[in-house]
Amino acid sequence: xxxxxxxxxxxxxxxxxxxxxxxxxxxxxxxxxxxxxxxxxxxxxxxxxxxxxxxxxxxxxxxxxxxxxxxxxxxxxxxxxxxxxxxxxxxxxxxxxxxxxxxxxxxxxxxxxxxxxxxxxxxxxxxxxxxxxxxxxxxxxxxxxxxxxxxxxxxxxxxxxxxxxxxxxxxxxxxxxxxxxxxxxxxxxxxxxxxxxxxxxxxxxxxxxxxxxxxxxxxxxxxxxxxxxxxxxxxxxxxxxxxxxxxxxxxxxxxxxxxxxxxxxxxxxxxxxxxxxxxxxxxxxxxxxxxxxxxxxxxxxxxxxxxxxxxxxxxxxxxxxxxxxxxxxxxxxxxxxxxxxxxxxxxxxxxxxxxxxxxxxxxxxxxxxxxxxxxxxxxxxxxxxxxxxxxxxxxxxx
Length: 398
What we know:
Elements: E1 5-9, E2 16-22, H1 32-43, H2 51-54, E3 59-63, E4 65-66, E5 69-70, E6 75-80, H3 104-110, H4 117-122, H5 128-143, E7 148-156, E8 159-160, H6 170-178, H7 187-202, E9 209-216, H8 232-241, E10 246-251, H9 262-265, E11 269-271, E12 283-285, E13 293-294, E14 297-298, E15 303-309, E16 320-322, E17 329-331, H10 342-364, H11 370-385
Antiparallel strand pairs: 1-2, 2-6, 3-6, 4-5, 7-8, 7-9, 9-15, 10-15, 11-12, 13-14, 16-17
Helix pairs in contact: 1-5, 1-10, 5-10, 8-10
């Protein structure tokens, strides 16, 4: 099955989140330990709130896996909410004072209620645990063709790292990132980010930041230019913008392209015969301003995606708002929340990027089984390397 999709159900105050992933080729080893390690990373990071001390996210595989391997049917997974408050009025009181920046007011008006409770619980970023589980499964599939995804925090508030992440150093960067409590591969910047979060907490405020994901080992030709809805850059942007509190997405050089001339933006192409055996097929660039995507398709260079997360909407000190019942000015409600969730957001973005790339890979290298998927991948690379000798057998050029 070539169409990789996932669906999720459940609210933050419900008993569980349920994830259904369809299209996983039979034979893929489903490493539950890896999925759980990604869920654990999502719960970490300095600046997280009290809920992370309540929940210990682990996934339970309900169907689609036998003896540790996918069997080709939909894979159903469950993540239990230990902080289940669905029918407890004492723990889930009504919310009549919407928080600026959250879904509270827009959702209450949409569903014609003055109680924001159901809206804020369904809009909660608790749901992103589902996307991390699905993304971890996608990463296991990508690894079967040598594709790896690396996400990290680029900045928090005004503190940023200038760390250059590339194919030769990302594994070393991975160890540094995992040693940082803000998920940044730069120890000096990590310390300053930590201080920025602590200062916001003292001021009863919140901070946001930039997160970045790189996809290494990705072959050219994923995605398409034939239909705007299937352009991989558009699909990645859609997936990243769908993460709660994200307000902007950039690919490669991103918005910086606007201040440069074409000669300073586009990546010159060279051919290096020594790299013909790699997924680049020997076509290399000295720069990667395009972020690995041209015309909606991968070009053999690393995919680079950056997302902007705004500060969390729930402030300890509240913000000016209105009581929906009285229409009188009041401070917004306080709900248990984070001071900064940028670190967790980097894990979520890494996951949704991985899922979209895996989906595009399955579309190109379709197969019901892992063997067919890998065989199709290798056959494509072999055919592409042979282009210099003429079109593949049976292909007639106009």
